[in-house]
Design a protein that fits this description.
The chain is α+β, with helices and mostly antiparallel strands. Helix content is about 45%, strand content about 15%. A three-stranded antiparallel beta sheet has the order 9-10-11.
Length: about 550
Amino acid sequence: DERTIRVQVFANAGEEVKLPDLGDWDDERYLEDCRMEFDLRKKTRSLYPGACSLVYQHLMQIITECLIGWDPKKQSGRPGVFGVPIAYSRTDEEQGRKTLHSHWQIWVKNFNKTRNSLFHRDDRKRKAARDALISYIDQVVCASYGTDFLVTHNCGTVKDHDRPVTVTMPMHQTLKEVEDKNTIRKAQHQDHCLDVKGKVLECKQCGKTFSPSECIKMGVDNLRLRQKVLAQTHDDAKRDVGDALDVTLMRKEWLDPAVIRYPFDFDEEGRPTEALKQQLIMMEAEGDGANRIVSHEWLLDRNLRSDIMHYVFDEHEYTHRGTCFKCANVECRAHLPEMASEHSIIFDNDAIAEMKQGIRDRDDDHHHCCADNDNGNKGVVVRHHLNGEVEEQSQYAILPRRTNGSQFLNQHNLSISKVIGSNTNATLGDRSHTFYTTLYKSKNTQAEDKMAFHRVHASLGRRLWRAHQYQLQQEEERKQNQAVASDDTTPAAAGEGSATPNDKYVDDKDRACFIEGLGRIMTGVNTFISRDVVSTTMAHLLICQGGERF
């Protein structure tokens, strides 16, 4: 059972790393402690790269044997989170923070048979295959938050004495996706995304726009504030703090320990652990003062904590990253944000035809536009089998169910995320994934791997150059002083103490030779190994795996 898995991280032999404490993000002292702990973890990760590699290997073993269900000794599979695996391939890579991540390709029993039946000539078999694949998608891929967050805003259409009223309602009741779907396309663009600013949601009444990130932050803070208990009087304890809330959004420093603790704060049944309950008691005891007690019971909600974790790890930034636009692409290669969808969709030529027909039914003005661009053979691949059969298949994309407010959410696997408490990316059905994973064997990552090496080498080179320039300056001054001294001093005076300048000259000459020699050696070392550099974390992993990235 994957839910029983627990991971303990050790930085030094016999010394268990203490989990970070939870606190209130309004407490500046607590936030400062979070920053210091973050810096400490960063420093520890740099000092002990081998420990990071060992923890990574432990996690990969858990995923392989417990979650995927692969027995490395028998080389066979059993039912796991993706079904029964019949083979798998894993490649390892290092990212910018000197941490490791992996790319997996998993072959699941009966999956290819179901996929190949998507375009069967028999309508009944084709429908059965599509229904089975959609059901499988809903089980293994998630692209939605599980919480219907409360959103607070001043709605212009709801007024009290001609003044806008602050409205707090669940997201699905008050917000919808923007009518202009071109806005979502612009949000994927490298430049236009800065104009959209992630605002792909709008109020159903007043039309005010929001980004999913804003809604999630408001929703979490609304839950937190609604559980505040005012202990001054019995009436205050019963008072509803619902309509007008001073929203203080989640702080980045607070999110870090909250997501790190997630896999450890709930037991195998999904119930809060005693350690978490004790942590909340301590938080309430510290409180906001003698007359105010703040309830943190919302941290006991596993579904909400799971959504916070996915917000940190899987929510795509509206500004995107540099890696989103590789190979001179101007649109996000992850195709985020995506439109919301009530159901999972297999988007192929049939789906396009149904969509166009729906447009024609709703608006006759679109008829000629759709008819002119209609091409039934677009994207069709003809496959010739060895037995003489000819099969036609269209290109297709699998779009998992995506609720409103999840437009920027990366599609992930819930089971793996809950166990390892990290980001995952789950896609399926694309044959090109085989090339993506296997080509890592020959992928050239030297540009990234040798960056730190070149930084150190360049720094040492500058220091040697400055020392060399200083030696040249000293040599020039010594020659000038000798010339002046030979003109102004008598022969007797020149002979006194002549050993000291000579000794100093010898020392300076030796130092100059050392600087020049070290510079030449470093130049040779850089020339020899600059194309064969690997980081310490990856080096430890390669040694443990016999020199293989697979």
